[in-house]
């Protein structure tokens, strides 16, 4: 993960741009340059101001403005894509001229000189009307998306494919028609994202149909060897509804994961709850098909826009002007589970739960419109000038760089596996003793119970479920809250209350943006917890008075629990107190004290259970050390 402190040497887009603030809409790394596009007229490096219009370059080595790169574009830059030669960049937007030459909406510029590529082959096609909003190299073709009607005099409505070498319009590819509108306005394709193998491409925008079939705001294409086509095996109604009627389209940005396993989408739209995907970040797995595909997870802000998303190997980053993350029940307020994440958030790719990274932007402005992950860190482009809470503000004019150096490595979320030592915390039935027992267990045969001597002063009798993750013992207590301590088998560390919903600095500076504990922590829910275990980004639990096995998304690195409670199994789990997963099996202590095992498939118990040990395993918690 990157540092929370933005690097101090980046150039600053001037705050006063002649009546408007200036904004960054696109960024790309080309060779040893970071290319930045948007709407601006001047940039300051140190104490010197340079007249730079809508496109600039930053030297990767020192993070300073490349003062020799000064192309002049007469309109806003919306999209950037590195060219195959590693020396030039494709530039799209609303401009009509580059360095005084007619280059409507699309150009190719040398990143060393700021001049158009002069290799005698590339010719910018004539893009008519509107703008180019996105550019993507895929399957050996250069795809462009936007709000245009013609290219090189031929009808192409919002989507087309070009030769990356010559700029010539393809008559075979990029011909899938996008038509109609979602909720008024003008048909446009706002973003496109291809899988790394170039076989599939997703498109979002203000369209109603793609390839002649209804695909409201979101479609998937096949990029073939001889032609492109709509992927008729994939369809979703996720964006078919209308959020706030003022938005003719509420999809804003999209990004593909580096490994090609999923794509994420960020939206605006308003606080309309869990029934719609307004003001959210969603993950869509690429191996899915169906007539109504649903997202793998949803993270709602509770009423604020997500303008940009990007994906690293470790996190999904989201920018915009949110106040909160993990906030499905909020209505311009902090609902149960909300955590403060002003303007920026990093999400766990497994479940969408916020990671602890929280530099924030204040003021939040209209939004962070562009995010770029490189091998060195995360670049953030926006329309504001400050990161971190007001009491520790760092001025970074529209451009921030968060280096991986000084950040931290995310933990592995490792849990104990059999064979091993299985611990019973607070053994007993009606009265749970202040003890920790253990048995050796290989999945078939259990040893005799041994009373462990553990220093550190832990009262085991108050435990209500346990999980050992990366050497930290997580547990609930009778007060309904979640705690953790280090545990090495012989000693425990100091008790820590897991309360990521409070952030001392942000809460002090912006008290209106405080987070809110999820309902799990209440005395009527968490206080009745019987058993717990962790697996693949989820915390599973049982509770008194219910026969169900529940789960919430959970990320140990941040300690944040998902706001929504899900049911893994609706019956058969009455009075189950101790549980753990090893391999593809779930082990649990039944109400009679016997240890049972059942297959655990796709996040849920499957099939019939089997008694594996007739000893009495009852207690406050069960975990493998």
Structure characterization notes:
The protein is mainly β and 625 residues long. It has three domains: 22-119, no CATH class; 120-403, 7 Propeller (Methylamine Dehydrogenase, Chain H), CATH 2.130.10; 420-624, Hemopexin (4 Propeller). It has one helix and 55 strands. The strands form 17 sheets. Strands 46, 47, 48, 49 and 50 form a five-stranded antiparallel β-sheet that branches. A four-stranded antiparallel β-sheet has the order 19-20-23-24, with no helix packed on it. A four-stranded antiparallel β-sheet has the order 25-26-27-28, with no helix packed on it. Strand 9 (97-98) and strand 10 form a beta hairpin. The longest helix has 6 residues, at 504-509. The two termini are 28 Å apart.
Give a short overview:
The protein has one helix and 55 strands.
């Amino acid at each position: 993960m990157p540092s929370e402190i933005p690097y101090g040497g980046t150039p600053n887009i001037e705050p006063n741009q002649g009546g408007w603030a200036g904004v960054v809409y696109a960024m790309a790394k080309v060779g040893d340059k970071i290319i930045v596009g948007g709407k601006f007229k001047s940039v300051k490096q140190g104490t010197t101001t340079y007249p730079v219009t809508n496109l600039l370059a930053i030297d990767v080595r020192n993070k300073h403005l490349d003062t020799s790169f000064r192309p002049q574009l007469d309109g806003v830059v919306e999209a950037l894509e590195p060219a195959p030669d590693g020396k030039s960049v494709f530039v799209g937007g609303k401009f009509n001229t580059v360095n005084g030459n007619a280059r409507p909406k699309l150009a190719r510029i040398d990143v060393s000189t700021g001049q158009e590529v002069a290799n005698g082959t590339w010719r910018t096609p004539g893009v008519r009307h509107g703008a180019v909003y996105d550019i993507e190299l895929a399957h050996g073709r250069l795809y462009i998306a936007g709000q245009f009607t013609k290219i090189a005099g031929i009808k192409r409505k919002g989507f087309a494919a070009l030769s990356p070498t010559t700029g010539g319009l393809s008559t075979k590819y990029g011909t899938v028609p996008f038509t109609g509108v979602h909720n008024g306005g003008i048909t446009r394709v706002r973003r496109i994202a291809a899988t790394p193998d170039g076989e599939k491409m997703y498109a979002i925008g203000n369209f109603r149909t793609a390839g002649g079939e209804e695909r409201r705001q979101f479609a998937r294409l096949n990029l073939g060897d001889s032609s492109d086509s709509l992927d008729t095996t994939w369809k979703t109604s996720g964006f078919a509804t209308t959020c706030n009627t003022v938005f003719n389209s509420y999809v804003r940005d999209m990004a593909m994961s580096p490994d090609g396993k999923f794509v994420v989408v960020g939206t605006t739209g308003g606080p309309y709850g869990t029934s719609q995907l307004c003001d959210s970040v969603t993950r869509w797995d690429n191996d899915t098909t169906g007539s109504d595909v649903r997202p793998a997870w949803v993270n709602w802000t509770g009423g604020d826009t997500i303008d940009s998303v990007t994906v690293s190997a470790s996190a999904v980053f989201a920018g915009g002007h949110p106040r909160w993350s993990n906030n499905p029940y909020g209505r311009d307020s902090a609902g149960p589970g909300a955590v403060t994440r002003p303007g920026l958030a990093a999400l766990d790719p497994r479940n969408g739960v916020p990671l602890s990274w929280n530099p924030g932007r204040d003021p939040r402005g209209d939004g962070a419109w562009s995010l770029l992950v490189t091998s060195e860190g995360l670049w953030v482009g926006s329309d504001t000038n400050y990161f971190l809470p007001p009491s520790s503000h760092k001025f970074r004019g529209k451009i921030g760089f968060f280096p991986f150096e000084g950040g931290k490595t995310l933990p592995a979320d490792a849990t104990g596996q059999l064979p091993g030592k299985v611990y019973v915390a607070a053994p007993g039935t009606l009265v749970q003793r202040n003890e920790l027992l253990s048995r050796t267990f290989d999945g078939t045969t259990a040893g005799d119970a041994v009373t462990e001597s553990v220093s550190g002063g832990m009262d085991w009798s108050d435990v209500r479920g346990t999980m050992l993750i990366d050497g930290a013992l997580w547990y609930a207590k009778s007060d309904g809250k979640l705690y953790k301590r280090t545990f090495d088998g012989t000693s425990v560390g100091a008790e820590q209350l897991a309360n990521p919903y409070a952030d001392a600095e942000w809460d002090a500076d912006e008290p209106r943006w405080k987070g809110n504990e999820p309902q799990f922590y209440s005395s009527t829910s968490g206080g009745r917890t019987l058993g717990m275990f962790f697996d693949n980004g989820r915390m599973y639990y049982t509770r008194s008075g219910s026969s169900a096995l529940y789960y919430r998304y959970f990320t140990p690195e941040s300690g944040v629990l998902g706001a929504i409670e899900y049911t893994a199994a609706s019956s058969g789990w009455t009075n189950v107190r101790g549980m753990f997963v090893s391999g593809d099996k779930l082990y649990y202590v039944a109400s009679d004290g016997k240890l049972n095992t059942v297959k655990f498939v796709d996040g849920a118990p499957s099939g019939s259970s089997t008694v594996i040990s007739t000893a009495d395993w009852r207690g406050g918690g069960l975990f493998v050390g």
